[in-house]
Each structure stands twice: as C-alpha cells, then as structure tokens.
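Structure in, sequence out. Go:
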C-alpha cells in the first residue's frame, strides 16, 4: 500500500509539473497574441491615418478648385452685369430716339 501511495505522489508531482509547464506555455502564447494585437492595431492606425491624409488632401484640392470656379463665375457675373447695363442704356437711347 505504501508503494501505491508513493507511486500516486510521483504521478501527482508529475501532473503538477506538467500543469505548471502548460501554464507557462499558455502565458507565453497569451503574451505573443497580445503583441500581435498591438502590432495589428498599430498597422490599422497607420492605415487610417494614411487614408485620412489622402482624403484631406483631396478635399483641400477640391476646395481650391471650387474657389477658382467661384472666382471665375463672379468675374463672368460682373461682365454679364456690365453687358446688361450697356444693353439697357442702349435700348433707352434707342427708345428715346424713336419717341422723339
């Protein structure tokens, strides 16, 4: 019976050591996974920053283009107003001549 108890103690000791070894291995795997998660987050953040930078640059270029178009339209509007004023004055003159 003592032999059986001794064998069980040896087996229990082996199981406990294997359990500790498995725990250490599991902790190592967890740390590795945490490192991978941090790396993926960092890559994701960099990708988002790159996309945001591109979008900002494109938006800025679009704003500049729209500003240029607006300046052109304002110039064209000013020319159209001058032309309309000149036509109105010409028509008044013609109307006054015809009425006289």
């Amino acid at each position: 019976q003592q032999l059986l108890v001794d064998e069980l103690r040896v087996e229990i000791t082996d199981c406990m050591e294997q359990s500790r070894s498995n725990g250490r291995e599991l902790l190592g795997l967890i740390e590795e996974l945490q490192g991978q998660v941090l790396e993926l987050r960092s890559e994701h953040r960099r990708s988002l920053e790159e996309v945001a930078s591109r979008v900002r640059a494109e938006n800025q270029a679009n704003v500049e283009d729209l500003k240029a178009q607006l300046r052109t339209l304002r110039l064209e509007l000013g020319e159209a107003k001058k032309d309309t004023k000149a036509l109105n004055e010409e028509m008044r003159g013609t109307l006054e001549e015809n009425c006289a």
